[in-house]
Each structure stands twice: as structure tokens, then as C-alpha cells.
Amino acid sequence: MPERSIREPTVAGQFYPANPERLQRDIEEYIKQASLPEDLGSVRAVVAPHAGYVYSGTTAGYAFMALKQLPDKTRTVFLLGPAHRVPVNGVALGSYSAYRTPLGDVPVAEDQVADMLEAASFYTRSPAAHEPEHCLEVELPFLQASLTDFRLVPMLFGQVSPGKVAADLIERMQEDDLVVVSSDLSHFHSYDTAQRRDQDFLNSLLGGDENGVRKGEACGRAPVMTLMEIAERKGWTPHLLDYRNSGDTAGSRSRVVGYASIAYTS
User: Fold this and answer.
1) How does pLDDT run across 16-54, given as a tens digit for each residue?
2) DSSP string covering the chain, please?
3) How far is CA 153 from its chain centroid?
4) How far apart, in whole angstroms, are the C-alpha atoms of residue 188 and residue 190?
5) CA distance 15 to 40
6) pTM of this prediction?
7) What's the pLDDT tens digit per position in 184-225?
8) Which domains does the chain have, with CATH numbers?
């Protein structure tokens, strides 16, 4: 494949509408329905779910409402998610100049990606991991609807130390840059069991308990722990904006997936 290319959407028409007008309308409605605490503070990072919008779009709307409140500035968004389909040793950054969605192209911060690849051995390109992966893609239309001017650093986590990634990002992030973590919570438990397990996970996250988060079932544990380390070093505070599961939205209550939106503020 070319050194620089457009990453085409993989799950448009499956996880979210492929029609641009319908997609824009749905996202605006999800964001419009969200409500935020009046004293939330300056948002520096969010955690958002990555399931099909019919399941998790309502919860995702809270995270992106928080980003939509930010002043219009040029930003780099470090988008962190777990590699579900192709094993990754380290963190895969891809080989793209842009990520395409039905709403247009999201430019990749190619200079930043190149510098990261040169700076640390745990970064790799691995476009094969990005091609089929949904967890970053489903966040992009929400980002396009929430931010006016941003470049993307797409980061798919495999086997890697969250602390090492956090240490690198802390050194390279600029004042207006954002971290967005893509993660669902527990998978395929009954409704009540999922609520208990997810609450334990969220209590650990909000309390800064990395061991508790590590024991949880969120598919994005490593990206979440990376954000927790960054937040601890920078003095950011987490706020739970919304929690529900697929049994609350569009699925059976016998086997559910959990979703949460969390904002970190300074």
C-alpha cells in the first residue's frame, strides 16, 4: 500500500448511517439530548463508547457535547482505542494522510505520527490493524460535528505499557490538544450483572485506581489507563457524564454491553 493514503470507512452503513445528511442529523440529535454539569470546567480529554450508534450513540453524545463546548481552536486529537481484529505489538499509528467518513476527510497529523514513530520503538504503522477496525472510526463523525479544526493521531493499542505511552504523550501534547479514548465497558452479561461490574470499573476509574481498572472488562483498558496516567500527572479530574448499557437502548437485557461517557477537566 502507498506510504500515504486515505483510510476509507469500514463500518459506515453498519455501525452508523452511510448517508451524510442522516448521519449529521443523528449526531446532532445525540449531542443535543445530552446535558452537562454547569461547573464541569475546561475539558481536556473524554472517554466515549464505540458500539453501533443505535446502541451507544446516546451515551456518546455526552462526551462530544463536552467537546463541543470548547472554544474554536486548531487542535491535535490523540484518538486512543483497542485493536479488536488484528494483533498489535505496541501502538499502531497507521500510514494515512486522512481518515474518510461520510462527512468528509479528517486530516492526520502526519508530522506528529512520523515523529512518534522515530521517538519510540513501541509505535508502529501497521495499517493492517487499522483497515478493519471500528473503534476509532465510529468516533470520527462525532468529532467532526463537535470540533471545527483538528488533526488526528490515530492510535490502536495492542500489547504495550500504558505508562510508557502516557509518558511520551505528556511530553508532546500542546496546550490545546485533546485526548479521546474509545472504549466500551463489560460485554455480554445479564443487565444486572453488567451494571454491577461496570459500576466497579467506573468507581476505580473515577478514584484513580489503576489496579481496579486493570481488573475490569472494558475493551479499552490500556487506553483508559494511559489517560489516567496523563491525568494524574497533569492534575485533570474525571467526571462521569453518562452510563447505560445496550439493554437501556436497543437490545435484549439478557446479554448487554456497557457504555460510559467521561470527561477529564483541568
Assistant:
1) 999 999 999 999 999 999 999 988 989 999 999 999 999
2) --SSEEE--SSBTTTB-SSHHHHHHHHHHHHHH----TT---EEEEEE--S-HHHHHHHHHHHHHHHHTS---EEEEEEEEE--SS--BSEE--SEEEEEETTEEEEB-HHHHHHHHHH-TTEE--HHHHTT--TTGGGHHHHHHH-SEEEEEEEEE-B--HHHHHHHHHHH--TT-EEEEE----EEE-HHHHHHHHHHHHHHHHTT-HHHHHHS--TTHHHHHHHHHHHHHHT-EEEEEEEEEHHHHTS-SSSEEEEEEEEEE-
3) 12
4) 7
5) 30
6) 0.96
7) 999 999 999 999 999 999 999 999 999 999 999 999 999 999
8) 17-265 (3.40.830.10)
112-120: Cβ within 8 A, 24+ apart? 112/76, 112/151, 112/153, 112/172, 113/153, 115/172, 116/153, 116/168, 116/172, 117/93, 119/168, 120/164, 120/168
